[in-house]
Amino acid sequence: SKDFVMALVAVLGTTISPYLFFWQASSEVDELAAAGATNPQAGRHGLRLSELRAARTDVLIGMAFSNLVMYFIILTSAAVLHAHSKTGVQTAAEAAAALAPLAGPFAFIVFSVGLIGAGLLAIPILTGSATYAIKEFLGLPGSLASKPQQRPTFYLILTLATMAGVVMNFMHLNPIRALFLSAVINGVVAPPLLLLIVLLGRDPAVMKRYVSGKLSLALTAIATVFMGVAAIAMFATIFTGG
Questions:
Q1: Three-class HEC string of the chain
Q2: Deepest in the core among 37, 79, 95, 136, taking most CB within 10 A?
């Protein structure tokens, strides 16, 4: 059905989110640059294999924990919300109230702490990734490792991105619906970006001796095709009324 396929695209969009492409790549570059990996004066003109391995380990650990958290979110939602026929949660208050069977009188506190923690984690990543994406699109220098007086344009974009998020709080948007639709958009935008990653990863002119391995390319290609098919199927069900 249309709702099922759209939900599938949303889940894929939250699992492989395009904004993380920019954030992860940029943050890794910043960390390596801070360590002197691209400092010609120190005799460094590239990355060491050990640094790439450390970056890969960092990504794998983060990916494992994020998927573990997502699994328990789905599990808790199924056990608490779906089991009690609460499938139309529209606000954070309704979600907190729905946790009462599991957390009892502490449901509001548990949900509030989790929501605040998620917000503190998400705000710098979302605003930072948007800033990196915009500055790279415009060809501007700057990073979070730079000081504001050194790269004022970068921090201006960062401030505007943060303010845009604040303004949205006063637009009376349905937060649950907004989260769902943003996940759907992520699921639609991700396949073309993944395709670019595959093409760049296998290009020796770009990657030099660090061309992606066959397993990495194969897994990325499979994810690209699967997400692309899901997005196409979603649009097909929307336009055909399926």
A1: CHHHHHHHHHHHHHHCCHHHHHHHHHHHHHHHHHCCCCCHHHCCCCCCHHHHHHHHHHHHHHHHHHHHHHHHHHHHHHHHHHHHCCCCCCCHHHHHHHCHHHHHHHHHHHHHHHHHHHHHHHHHHHHHHHHHHHHHHHCCCCCCCCCCCCCHHHHHHHHHHHHHHHHHCCCCCCHHHHHHHHHHHHHHHHHHHHHHHHHHHCCHHHHHHHCCCHHHHHHHHHHHHHHHHHHHHHHHHHHHCC
A2: 95
Give the distance between the most distant pair of CA atoms in the chain. Answer: 64
Q: What is the mean pLDDT of residues 115-127?
A: 82
| Per-residue pLDDT tens over the stretch 192-201 | 989 988 898 8
> What are the tokens at 231?
């997005």
pTM: 0.75
* C-alpha of 52 from chain center: 21
| C-beta atoms surrounding 136 within 10 Å | 14
Q: Tell me how far apart the terminal alpha carbons of the chain are, to the nearest angstrom.
A: 6
